[in-house]
Fold:
Amino acid sequence: ALLRDVPLDDRERVLLHWLDAHDDKMRSALAAELCELYAEPGHVEIGRPLAQRCLSCHAGAPPVPFGRPDACVSCHRRIPAQWAGSAHGQSLSHLQLKTIDPATREAKWMDFGPVRGITCTECHRPLSPDTGPASAASRPQGCPFAFRPVTSPMESCLRCHAATHRQWLAWRKGVQPRRATWPPGHLDLRYRGDTRGCVDCHMRRPRRPDGPHPRDHRWAARRDVDLLREGIDIQVRRPRGDGQGQKVRLVLTNLSGHAYPAGSRRRALQVYAGAAAGGEPPLIATLAPRRPGLLHVAAPGSQQGANTQPALAPGEQRSFDVSVAASAEAVAWRVVYCRNLLQPGSYSVEILSGTVRLGG
Structure:
């Protein structure tokens, strides 16, 4: 209320300063959650300070020489093509910010200019725009540009994915369930010692027999169904000592190195299960990250569902019991990944499904 009549840019500077001071004092990361705090489409009064904070991740660090991939294309032809269709290459396509046009006093979409997304120089930083003296270590063979000393890929990811990085650190310290090499279909729930980082899963090297190749710059994630399937396992069991009724137990195990699903509270994992002969099985649980922001009540026809639970923590197992009529012969189940549970009709994909027979 005190800032109500303050010019928008000045107001945002005060609020952002308060968020940063809060984080310094409380050792939290509230300022890093601006994407969640401003996730609702009703926010239209956005000024330059807040927009620039958004762009610090969605478009990378402030522009540097060769900030666009054009200079890299002549030598690295395949990688820019991979980048162009990736979530990083299109990181501004879903950043829809509205502001007030000072001339018309009407809301309009912000124009980010020629910036398209997170480019090569966010991870590969040239030292200067010229080809002056540089050490051999900073100048790759045959490349006209000298680069800053190489940093860990994890450091580049951490700058914008701090919450997921904290989850990864917890996973490194605890048990790391994985699929057993033998017998097939079983899990090793006591494994430790997995040293994989972000790029090992999200930027794999092509499996080719003719020597080393650059990592895949498509940054496999939510639209890579194989990667989604690798990150989670489901076991279907009959509960012991339950002699009444027809019941099965679905056991989900998180095999990824972070929460599943990870990221925004709009992501969701939806579990469906019910009698196989009853048509589409009903939704029994929705798993979504717990992040700051407004609480949402499921609207009629929405994908959220009544039983909303936290996302699976790294290495966590969670069980769901499903009861069906005594006449049911089988139970069908599905696990669906949903990109935005607050937007019905948003991209979703089935990653696991099956049927288990009852009786006998």
